[in-house]
Design brief:
The protein is of the alpha+beta class and 236 residues long. It has one domain (17-231): Creatinase/methionine aminopeptidase superfamily (Creatine Amidinohydrolase), CATH 3.90.230.10. It is built from 5 helices and 7 strands; from the N terminus they run ααβββααββββα. It has helices at residues 15-35, 42-56, 118-141, 145-159, 224-231, and strands at 60-69, 91-101, 104-114, 162-163, 170-171, 197-204, 211-217. The strands form 2 sheets. Strands 4, 5, 6 and 7 form a 4-stranded antiparallel sheet that branches. A 3-stranded antiparallel sheet has the order 1-2-3. The longest helix has 24 residues, at 118-141. The N and C termini lie far apart (44 Å). Mean pLDDT is 93; it is low at 224-233. This is Aminopeptidase P family protein.
């Protein structure tokens, strides 16, 4: 298969290693989730995350862990968090990881709730559902990255959520993917190849200050582990 020049990879690139990095990244994300609790702050959660990474033998970060709580869940990765926000008894948060295992990049993200927060839980699930919908359209119809994000925006609005247009997905590969300069998925005018692009979805409540985030690698067939992670109940 001939790749577009924006899908260039390095000499070490191995599709199986990409899937392994993805799987280990999901393992890390859920290990962090298991350690989240009411009262924890974002910086404390990042310290917890560092311990998880060490336990899993992570090689390095390719982007720092992003953990957003409550009103910070509507922030993009470039926007600083409101300081000193802590997880409430009935609240929402998301985890966004960019980890390197065996020289390959994993990038995963998901949103969870604690306590009794049905509207926030609905938002978290909506981000997962929208990801699943958009990924299925990519597999079925072969849409370009640009058209995938147009579709995601239309579906988010139809579902009753605000879509974050600043989040457009991106390339991953053998580290560092930035050498290959793949750019944003949302600006890619071709059909994205399997195993090279991360689809990012971020939505927000139309009037309330909370939102949800979900991201994963676009693959022709999602591994069973990734599906199990997506289907896990998000209250604890």
């Amino acid at each position: 298969m001939t790749l577009h020049h924006r899908e260039a990879v390095g000499n070490r690139f191995d599709p199986a290693s990409m899937l392994r990095a993805r799987s280990l990244s999901w393992t890390a994300l859920h290990a962090i989730r298991d350690r989240m609790h009411a009262g924890i702050g974002e910086e404390e959660a990042k310290t917890v995350a560092a311990g998880v990474f060490q336990e899993l033998g992570m090689e390095r970060l390719w982007h720092p862990p992003i953990i957003r709580i409550g009103p910070n869940t509507i922030k993009t990765y470039r926007q600083p968090s409101i300081p000193d926000v802590r997880l409430g008894e009935n609240d929402i948060y998301f985890i966004d990881l960019g980890l390197v295992f065996d020289g390959h990049e994993g990038d995963v993200g998901d949103t969870f709730t604690v306590g009794h927060a049905p509207e926030r839980q609905t938002c978290a699930q909506a981000a997962r559902d929208l990801f699943t919908d958009v990924a299925a359209v990519w597999r079925r119809e072969g849409l370009s990255g640009h058209n995938l994000y147009n579709y995601a925006n239309e579906r988010a609005e139809a579902m009753g959520w605000r879509f974050n247009h600043a989040i457009k997905g991106h390339r991953v590969s053998d580290f560092p993917h930035s050498v290959h300069k793949g750019g944003d998925l949302g600006d890619f005018e071709n059909r994205p190849s399997s195993g090279l692009w991360v689809l990012e979805i971020q939505i927000a409540h139309p009037t309330e200050p909370f939102g949800a985030f979900y991201e994963d690698l676009l693959t022709d067939a999602a591994p069973e582990g990734a599906r199990q992670h997506s289907e896990t109940l998000d209250t604890h």
